[in-house]
Amino acid sequence: MRALCYHGKHDIRYDTVPDPEIEHPRDAIVKVSSCAICGSDLHLYDGFMPGMMNGDIIGHEFMGEVVEVGRENRKLKVGDRVVVPFTIVCGECDQCRRGNFSVCERTNRNAEMAAKMFGHSTAGLFGYTHLTGGYAGGQAEYVRVPFADVGPVKVPDGLTDEQVLFLGDILPTGWQAAVHCEIEPTDIVAVWGAGPVGQFCARSALMLGAKQVIVIDNVPERLSMARAGGAITIDFDEESVLERLEDLTAGKGPEKCIDAVGLEAHAGRSIDSMYDRAKQAMMMETDRPHVLREMIYVCRPGGIVSIPGVYGGVVDKIPFGAAMNKGLTFRMGQTHVNRWVDDLLRRIEEGQIDPSFVITHTVPLEHGPEYYDIFRDKHDGCVKVVLKP
Amino acid sequence: MTYRNGTGTALARALGWFSIGLGAAELLAPRSLASMLGMQGRERLLQTYGVREVASGMAILAARDPSPWVWSRVAGDALDLATLAPALDESNPRREAAAIAVGAVTAVMLVDLLCTRELSRERERPPPRDYSDRSGFPQGVDRARGIARQPTTAMGG
Ligand SMILES: NC(=O)c1ccc[n+]([C@@H]2O[C@H](COP(=O)([O-])OP(=O)(O)OC[C@H]3O[C@@H](n4cnc5c(N)ncnc54)[C@H](O)[C@@H]3O)[C@@H](O)[C@H]2O)c1
Ligand SMILES: [Zn+2]
Ligand SMILES: [Zn+2]
Question: Where are the domains of chain B?
Fold first, then answer.
C-alpha cells in the first residue's frame, strides 16, 4: 500500500510499504477514506519530538471502512464505517475505567521507554513517536487498529467524512480543553492559537456558555475564522496581547486561559522568545513556553489555565511564583477522546456544530508531503488539510 | 501587515544572528581582528562597527518588518568595504587577509541584497482569505451560545 512516511526532520515521503495485517484477535484493519494533518504532526515534522524512526508511517487523524476483523473482536464487522480516536485504549485498565483514556496503562508497547522519560507510561498513539508505542499511523491506505473492539466510533452514513473525521482528535481536544475550564456564564475565555485546535476550543467555550471568547494569533485568515465563530480576536503582530486583554476584561484578566499553540510558540518581538530560541539551539531547552508565560501572567487570580497544546520535554523560566500565589489551576493532557465522542457525535447529528468548517484544503494523499509545508507555513490560507488515499 | 515564515524572513533572522556574532567579535576582540587584517591602530573604529552590527542584528530580530534594517546592513557593508579598501594597498603585508575580508564582505552584501528582494516578494503575497462565513454553527452563532451549558461544579455545587 501507499503511505506517508517519516524520514527525518522536514522529510516526509509518499512510500510503498507492506500492507498491515491482523496481529491480535482484537484488531481490525481499516481502509482509510479520509485522514488529516494535525499540528501535532508538525511537531514531529519540525523535529521537536524524540523517538521517531526512519520509515515510520505517520498520521493519527483518520477514518474509513472496516475491511478485516480479528476473531475475538465482537464490536466491529466488515463494512462498518468508523472514526478511529488517536489514542489507543484497552477499556479495561484502571485509567480507562476512570475515563482517563489517554493515559491507558496497557496500550503503549514501549511502556518502559516512556516511563523512563515521563515517570510513567501513557497510552499508545497512532503515527506518533516510539515513546507512545510506535504504532503505524493513519496517513495511509490501510491501518491496523489494535484494541479495535474499544476505541473506534461507528458513524452513521447520513454524515459526511468531513463532518465526523475530527471526532477522532481535534473536536474532542477543543471540547476537553473548554470543559477543563469549568466555564461559568460570567467567564471570559482567552484562547491562544487560532489553528484547528484553537478554533474548536473557541467554538466549544462558546457552546459551554462563556460570556465572551477571545482568540489570539497573528494569521489574519485564521483570526477571521475565529471571529466567524463569535470570538473577539487579537493579532499579536499588530497589538500588545497583554494590553488588549486588560482592556477587554476591565483590567482583571480573563478567568480562563487556553493554550492551543504548544511547544513551537513564536513570539515575534519579545525578549523571552530570543532567549528561548537561543537556549533551544544550544539544546538546553526543548520547548518554547512563551504562551504559558503569557497565560500565567494575565490569568485572573483563582482562574484556570487549560493546556491542550502539546509539550514534549523541559521548559525554562516559568513564573511559577505567579502561578502559585495567584492560585491558578492547571488542567492539561492528551485528549481522552472516548470520554467525549458519543456526546459530540450527537451534537453533530443535531446540527449544533459542523466541524467541517475548518477544512480549507482537500488533496490526494500523494500530495501530503508538500501539504505539510503549506499547512505549517499557513500558505494559501491553509487552516486544515484533509488527505484522500 | 505581517511577514512570516517565508525565505526572506528566515534569511533575515539568520542575518540578524550573524550580525550579532560578527559585532560581538569586533567589540570583544578588536586587537586580534585588526592585526589579522593589518589594520593596527584602527581598533576603535572596529569596535564602533561592532556596536553597529550588534544593534542592527537586534533590530532585525526584533522588528515586525525587518526590511529597513536589512537595507541598513547593505549600507553597513558598503561602509565596511570603504574602510577595508586602504588595507588592500601594496604596502600592507597582510594584504591577502584583507583581500579575503573584502571578498567575504562582498559575499555577505549579496546575501543582504537577496534578503531584501525576498522580503519584498513576501510583502506582495495575496491578501488573506476571508473565512467570515465559516462559523461552524449550522443554526447560527447566537443559537450556539450556551447550547451545551453545564451545571456548574466550580463552587462545589
Ligand atoms: N492535547 C491533545 O490531545 C492535542 C490534540 C491535537 C493537537 N494538539 C496540539 O494542539 C496544538 C495546536 O494544534 P493545531 O493543529 O491547531 O496547530 P497549528 O500549528 O495549526 O496552530 C497553532 C497556532 O498557534 C499560533 N501561534 C503561534 N505562536 C503563538 C503565540 N505566541 N500566541 C498565539 N498564537 C500563536 C500559530 O500561528 C498557529 O495558528 C499543537 O501543539 C498540537 O500538538 C493537542
Ligand atoms: Zn492530532
Ligand atoms: Zn486502558
Answer: 7-123
Is B82 exposed, middle or buried (CB count within 10 Å of its CB: 0-12, 13-18, 19+)? exposed
State pTM to two decimals.
Answer: 0.81
Which grid cell sits at A207? 457552546
Q: From CA A211, how far away is CA A208, in angstroms rounded?
A: 10
- Secondary structure class of B41 (helix, strand, coil): coil
How many residue contacts between A and B have a Cβ separation below 8 Å?
115
Which contiguous run of DSSP H or E holds residue A191? strand A188-192
Does A295 contact ligand 1 (Cβ within 6 A)?
no
CATH number 3.60.10.10 is the correct assignment for the domain at A2-169+335-388 = no
Domain ranges, ordered by start, for chain A: 2-169+335-388, 171-332
Cell readout for A301 is: 487570580
A214 CA → ligand 1 middle, Å: 15
Is the CB of A262 within 6 Å of ligand 1? yes
Instruction: Tell me the C-alpha distance between A16 and A233, whole Å.
Output: 44
Q: At what angle do helices B7-28 and B95-123 cross, to 10 degrees?
A: 150
Q: Is A171-332 assigned to CATH 3.30.360.10?
A: no
ipTM of the complex, rounded to two decimals: 0.93
A355 three-state secondary structure: helix
Radius of gyration of chain B (CA): 26
Summarize pLDDT for B27-44 with one digit per residue, the tens: 999 898 888 888 888 888
* Contact at CB, A224 and B61, closer than 8 angstroms: no
* C-alpha to C-alpha distance for A61 and B30, rounded to whole angstroms: 57
C-alpha grid cell, residue A353: 456544530
Is the shortest distance between the CB of A42 and ligand 1 below 6 Å? yes
- For A189-206, the pLDDT digits (tens) are 999 999 999 999 999 999
SS3 of B147, please?
A: coil
How many whole angstroms separate alpha carbon A58 and alpha carbon A54?
Answer: 11
